[in-house]
Amino acid sequence: MASTGFLALCSTGAFSGLAVEAGAGVCHATPIYAGHSWHKATFRLEVAGTTLSRYLRDLLVAACPDLLLQTLPRKAITQLKKRCCYVSLDFEGDLHNPARHHPTSFCLGNGCSVCLSSERFRCPEPIFQPGLLGHTEPGLPTLAFWALQNVPGTLRRRLANTVVLAGGSTLFPGFTERLERELEAQCQQNGCGALQPHLVAKPGRGTAVWTGGSMVASFHNFQRHWMTRAMYQECGSRLVHKVFD
Asked: Which residue positions does the secretion signal occupy (predicted)?
């Protein structure tokens, strides 16, 4: 067992930094120092890939109340999202200027196609503005800033120097640029201009946790973190906290 944030960092060869994860079910901002997760400074957002897929379906049905769109399988919606959607660097400006919508069509493979316009950049926006879906928590850039703020001041600059992105929902075009821009703005607006976040966005970050896990499992000293079936049967669940805390 290991923190997914720690494994994401390991995939880049780092052991200290801020892991910003946006996967299928949830988003996290987790500070890691010397391989240990800072749980009290970890923040969670209940908006991620699955939520965005449902939102995209709702947007498409609202634009064209077609029975076909309402019955599209989840896999088709996910393909639409991955191939056509992107993060806007100026959401309000793009939203109110149809000339900047960049419509595109996506073939469903059954002879039908779906046309997307503003839905392309409206779909991922709830990660940055959860209020669009009725959530009260702030967006992921703010949570990332809070995570940095909640670690000791002596560590903030070091962790900010390695902000590792992980998870499939970070793969939207424009995601890295938008997150970096808003995180830097948070630092400036809150008197932390000395923090200059450096984002690490590897091409394979969609599977960063798996990659990091395979790397950690190969470490010689990782064997002391193993718990065998025999150990569990002998000591019970209390051993979990002793071994993995």
From this structure: 1-29
